[in-house]
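Progress report, Aim 2. The chain analyzed during this reporting quarter is listed below.
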Amino acid sequence: MKNFLFDLDGTLTDPKEGITRSVEYALLKFGIETEDRNSLCPFIGPPLVDSFSRFYGFDEQKSVLAVKYYREYFSERGIFENEVYSGIPPLLSSLKEKGAKIYLATSKPEEYAVRILEHFDLYQYFDGVCGSTFDGSRVKKGDVIAEVKKRYSLCAADCVMVGDRMHDIIGAKENGIISVGAEYGYGGHKELCENGAEYTAKTVKELEKLLLSLLY
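Predicted structure tokens for the chain:
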């Protein structure tokens, strides 16, 4: 393998504070108060429209409006209420030194993803960045991964997808790509394995060792 596709939230960075505060802000617009912000952690990873529908029963129109409110907060404040997991910069550097190509495949809007990578000085490691679109035409992880393959002319047999949620694993399978589950993120061992992750890693250090072993 020589092409490594990484999820962002829960894999490279811990976005808990920014995402949960943004969801809390959006819900307040509908008069819904959140007693425990930790209860909003399931919003980390999946497409937001799906999460507002699943967890609060919003119809499509209401979910789209909720995402609009979410972005009001996130674009100004929540985007940087975030932190890079310890060990991620050395992991990315090690892969680059060994000749790997690194791409971002995130359900987060591409514009936000680029801003986050630049802010945390991670952009330098990436050969390409692909995210969702603001208009909703590309949201699901499988579609994002397909766009990465198309945009950068990648062969599925040469790719590995790294992510912390079931959507990363399912999206990789839809594209014929081997997947690695990051157990330290927000999905956990059970979710990742039940959805068919070929490999899992409990820590960033373990992930680095695994990915280097898969290189070529």
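The radius of gyration is 16 Å. Residues 27 and 33 are 7 Å apart (CA to CA). These observations will guide the mutagenesis work planned for the next reporting period.
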